[in-house]
């Protein structure tokens, strides 16, 4: 059976729902897309880094909230070949990158020495065609992340593909420790075009910037 054919604009209203999940007060985001503001670059002041990609601002809002709450450094991953201002206009490109496991270039990779100084790296991405934005994988594979703690977070339009997206982060950081340590089993981790049963139950994820603090407490990052 083929995975449902996606009409990406269907994700638009769902994204807004995800940004206002039940345990959160409404996210400080407009219902319209927002463009992430200026690039963020790691300063090297903390042992924790929040590295994220965001096209429309939702993932950036969560990333910035993590920084506010933890004092982590922040780094926004930028694609060498930028996506359309409205990424839905680039849906075919994004699907091709996801389905063929491509590694689009990153415009602003930090030096290896800078990344080496972090113990913990939050990795944020939108869920794009049931995968992370593939530039996030390009970033992760550019470094030796052995023994670092990698904590993925996603914003998404529907929770259905969260596990597949998470699995990809774990797969490209095989020598890292992860939070959570394990994920629900994904029956088809290698072929994202073939659906498995729903398998996202139990994955803890902030639905919005406003849900981030409770999430960080639940996963033990802050008290
Ligand atoms: C091309 C495209 C594909 C998408 N595919 C998915 C998907 O497979 N699953 C999902 O839950 N959301 C999907 N979305 C919705 C995004 O994950 C959601 O809007 C996300 O919050 C955007 O994050 P950003 O604002 O940081 O860019 C897609 C969005 C776009 C533009």
TrEMBL record:
Residues 21-46 are annotated as: Disordered. It comes from the Bacteria. The keyword Signal applies. Residues 47-178 form the Flavodoxin-like domain. Coiled coil: none annotated. InterPro entries: Flavodoxin/NO_synth, Flavoprotein-like_sf. Residues 1-18 form the signal peptide. It holds the Pfam family Flavodoxin_4. PROSITE patterns: PROKAR_LIPOPROTEIN (PS51257). Keywords: Signal. Transmembrane segments: none annotated. GO terms for molecular function: FMN binding. PANTHER family: EXPORTED PROTEIN-RELATED (PTHR39201), FLAVODOXIN-LIKE DOMAIN-CONTAINING PROTEIN (PTHR39201:SF1). This is Flavodoxin-like domain-containing protein.
């Amino acid at each position: 059976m083929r995975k449902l054919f996606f009409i990406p604009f269907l994700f638009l209203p769902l994204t807004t729902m995800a940004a206002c999940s039940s345990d959160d007060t409404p996210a400080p985001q407009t219902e319209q897309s927002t463009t992430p503001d200026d690039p963020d670059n790691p300063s090297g002041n903390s042992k924790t880094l929040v590295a994220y990609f965001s096209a429309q601002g939702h993932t950036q809002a969560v990333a910035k909230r993590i920084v506010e709450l933890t004092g982590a450094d922040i780094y926004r991953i930028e694609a060498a070949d930028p996506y359309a201002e409205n990424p839905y206009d680039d849906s075919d490109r994004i699907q091709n990158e996801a389905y063929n496991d491509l590694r689009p270039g990153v415009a602003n990779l930090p030096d290896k020495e800078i990344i080496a100084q972090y113990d913990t790296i939050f990795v944020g991405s939108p869920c794009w065609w049931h995968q992370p934005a593939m530039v996030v994988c390009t970033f992760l594979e550019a470094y030796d992340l052995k023994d670092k703690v990698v904590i993925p977070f996603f914003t998404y339009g529907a929770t259905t593909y969260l596990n597949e997206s998470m699995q990809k982060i774990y797969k490209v950081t095989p020598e890292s420790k992860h939070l959570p340590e394990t994920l629900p089993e994904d029956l088809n981790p290698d072929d994202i075009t073939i659906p498995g049963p729903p398998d996202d139950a139990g994955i803890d994820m902030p639905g919005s910037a406003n849900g981030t603090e409770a999430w960080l407490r639940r996963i033990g990052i802050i008290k």
